[in-house]
Amino acid sequence: MALVVGAAAVLSFPLWSPNPYILSAGVVVLSYAVLSTSWNFVGGFTGYMSLGHAAWFGLGAYGTGLLIARAGVPSFLALGLAAVVVAVLAVPIGIAALRVRGASFVIVSIALVLVLLLVFQSWRDVTGGSDGLTVPRPFPDLLRPQHHAVFFILFAVLLGVALLAWWTIDRSRFGLGLKAIREDEDKAQSLGVPTFAYKLVAFVVSATFTALGGGLYALWFGDLDPIFQFSILLGSYMVLMALLGGVRHLFGPALGALVVGVAIEYFKVSYGDTQFHLVATGLLLAAVVLFMPDGVIPAVQALLNRFRPQQSSIREVSAAELREQVKL
Amino acid sequence: MTGSLLFQSLVLGILLGGLYALLAAGLTLYFGVMRVVMIAHAAFLVLAAYLAWDVHQRFGIDPLLSLVVTVPLFFLAGVGFQRLLIARLRPATVTMMSVLLTFAVALTIEGMLGFVYSGTQRRVQLSYSAASIEVFGAQVAVVKLIAFGLAALSLLALYLLLTRSRFGQALRATIQHPQAARLIGIDTDRVAGYGFGLGLATAAVGGAALSLDSTIYPSLHWHWIGPLMAIIVVGGLGSIPGAAIAAMVLGIVQSLLQLPLGTTWAQTVFYLALFATLLVRPQGFFGGRLAQRF
After folding, report:
1. Which fold has domain B3-280?
2. CA-CA distance, B274 to B227, in Å (whole number)?
3. What is this entry's stated membrane topology (chain A) (predicted)?
4. Considering all CA atoms of chain B, what is the largest pairwise distance in Å, rounded to the nearest integer?
5. pLDDT tens column, A286-317
6. What is this model's ipTM?
7. What angle do CA A115, B266, B240 make, to 5 degrees?
8. Residue A289: its chain B contacts at CB < 8 A?
9. What is the model's pTM?
10. pLDDT of A227-256, one tens digit each?
């Protein structure tokens, strides 16, 4: 019921948004929600924090843009093709990256963005380098506000599909295996979970959804620049949003995207081109990591639980919580 | 391509490798004592370079003299950083969360630098900036030699400190086995704090060296952190000799590749080495037990 109301509120936003600027900001926030939800397939289920998911975003965006601009493929076919290409690319990269855990994995993910940034900036003949790449619009006849409205709905649909996929995995045996990896990979492996295959599948699914988000962004925005598509900052936004909302919850990343996305847009409007948004992002991320590593949703839930009868004995406990309980 | 040109870039590669080695040693220290991957290392490097530039701009003194202030200051900042921030994280997730935390610090430093000094590119102009001397037929800028000398001296000092002093023994014991170190009476928390301070001090030295011969701007740290991270993974997380060797080798290869490929493409060698290492030897070429787990 709440779900239907929420979906209706989101989908009707183009009707009641006061002006085209707010609507376009809404598209940006919604695209953040898609990206952080996509990130959460890896970050939330397996606990592998990728700071470099902007790599998939950029590849999806450039893949779509290049297919349209250089090969003349129809817009939405290009989007699908680009997603397939990224999915195929994600397999070897995932095999390499998932061989290491924890900190090394984060390093690898950052390296991936940095190397792609170098390649797309240097390879001027194909990508246009720092001059950027202009992507032809899929609906040339539409006026700007209508264009925003159409893409708002498209992003909302993509978000719905991503959420549905996350929800399905969350309840499946596959999802249970992934969560076992998150809590203790060695134990999961010794219990017979095919950890590597599971991680790889989650990684590819996550990359594909991120690429779809990127491709859709390319179609909407129409102008690509390596600095902005392969940006560490974008990758850190995804992590920040997901952590803030809560990585263990279906709507956590989307909620985080709403908070952080609105904040980012606000900072951009109020402080323009200064470096203030970097400081704000940095401080916010530090605060979340230090004080709310489980996100807002669990923090609020814990608060509510104080007033409820005690929980039953069977529930999900993370390795970190377990360790703290043992200490007590 | 002539032989002398090749030799020239070989020499430049060695000089660059020295600086990489010093900074990678700092990163290895953080990882050793706390299992922390310090993304903000390069941001502190750029911060130190800005401070050196600022000192030179304001008082007209040599940027190298800023070391007298920045090294102790960064040491204290490192101790404080470990005590106040890293130690607060949950032990079970410290590696992952510390990456995010130090990343946040890096963003904050970059933003503040942009705020205070603006995004304009800065460069220190010195009387000896343009001077160069001939080393076996290769023209080498004096500032690069000074930077290398500084890095080599600091590395030597660090090496002596770690191998000859009591504190060094305690630090290495903490790196090898924190629990056992605690059992024989080492205050590992304090040692970890000092380890962090030492690591950050290498960033201060590196920053002064960097300010001598390169143009600095707030987002410069991204150009350093990628290669440095690649170096410590290739060398094996936690191994200082591994980091130093990997730094030298990759620095030289990068410098040699700049001739045929240009600067931007040459930088990709670090990432290629990183991915190749992961496929062949995920624990790095000199790392032991430690590197595999993290």
Report:
1. ABC transporter involved in vitamin B12 uptake, BtuC (1.10.3470)
2. 9
3. Multi-pass membrane protein
4. 60
5. 988 888 888 777 778 777 777 766 555 556 66
6. 0.82
7. 80
8. 89, 97, 100-101, 104
9. 0.86
10. 888 988 899 889 989 988 888 888 989 999
